[in-house]
Amino acid sequence: MTARRGGSGVFGRFVLVGGSLSLGFSVTTSALINLAGTPPLATAVIVYLACIPIGFAAQKRLAFAVEKTRSSAMALYTATQIGSLAVVSAVTTAFVQHDLWRDTLLMLFTAGVAAIVSFAIGRYLTFRPA
Questions:
Q1: CA angle 23-42-18, nearest 5°?
Q2: Model pTM?
Q3: pLDDT by residue (tens digit) across 77-92?
Q4: What residues contact residue 69 under an 8 Å CB cut-off, 6+ apart?
Q5: Domain residue spans in the chain?
Q6: Does pLDDT of 130 surpass 80?
Q7: Which of 12, 48, 78, 119 is the 20 to 30 A CA-CA neighbour of 87?
Q8: Are 11 and 119 in contact (CB under 8 A)?
Q9: How does 7-23 read in b/e, with b if 16+ C-beta sit within 10 Å?
Q10: What average pLDDT does the segment 105-114 reach?
């Protein structure tokens, strides 16, 4: 894989991309649960799965700025996100209070922790320059 840009701004770009994705996930999930009455677990799973290909493309191009990845990069990214999904889903199921703002903060916090782990895996495995 080849890198387009240097690594000094990787974390900042990752935070921007990941934060945007986490915010979108959190608000969308909380709104569906609280405003549309959808079930918390199913909602979190569906919204999170929909974010995986968007996240991969954004992280590849914008955060880690690589032009080409190894053939297993998408599978590794998906596995990382599925692990995060398990944590987010467990927290959603156990702690949702059906309060829009509290649930949004809960999901933002949970997605933030998952993002820290995702950054390390992305930086050193998934999007690592050759």
A1: 20
A2: 0.71
A3: 999 989 887 887 788 7
A4: 1, 60, 126, 127
A5: 10-126
A6: no
A7: 12
A8: yes
A9: eeebeebbeebbeebbe
A10: 83
